[in-house]
Design a protein that fits this description.
about 40% helix; five-stranded antiparallel β-sheet; alpha+beta; about 180 residues; globular; about 25% strand
């Protein structure tokens, strides 16, 4: 099956409060539209020691079919693919018991995305900063980027996702 292209956007912030404000702005923007299933986002805090936590993530309803991954955590899965040590840290616990699914998504990204692209995204988030990681439909990426009012740095990269394979990998994990 042909890959579905999404856009990964990583934005760095001086504080977690600024990251949460932009995260909330994006959530509110899409909440009452027919596009609410076309994105997933997570707030990331990177300590001075490099430790990562995910203090807030999209809590939209679970979606089914080819959009299942967006509803269950493509953004959190991308964070784990970018920073594998986050899986050991408490970030997956924040995901509400969905660690196996997020791990499957992270593995999918690691296989499908060139390492130079993952590295470029991860380098957006300096130690001691906060960030928002977003996975969005390409048609909405420019619109989302404009909502990142407080960001000090933004990186965008295309992500290829084999929706059929991802759905098969996630089957039974989110029942």
């Amino acid at each position: 099956m042909a890959d579905q292209t999404y856009v990964a956007i990583a934005a760095q912030y001086a504080s977690e409060d600024e990251a949460v404000a932009d995260f909330d702005r994006i959530q509110a923007h899409f909440k009452d539209t027919d596009k609410k299933e076309s994105f997933d986002a997570a707030v990331v805090q990177r300590g001075l020691d490099g430790k990562l936590t995910i203090p807030k993530r999209g809590d939209s309803a679970k979606h089914h079919g080819t959009r299942k991954g967006l509803g269950i955590g493509l953004a959190s899965g991308l964070v784990v693919a970018l920073f594998p040590a986050v899986a050991v840290g408490g970030a997956l616990l924040v995901a509400g018991g969905s660690g196996a699914g997020i791990g499957a998504i992270a593995s999918h990204f690691a296989k499908k995305t060139p390492s130079k692209d993952l590295e470029a995204i991860s380098e957006t988030l300096d130690a001691g900063s906060a960030g928002v990681v977003i996975v969005v439909d390409p048609a909405d990426s420019d619109e989302v980027e404009k909502l990142l009012e407080h960001a000090t740095r933004v990186t965008k990269k295309d992500l290829d996702v084999d929706d059929k394979q991802l759905d098969e990998d996630l089957e039974g994990l989110y029942e």
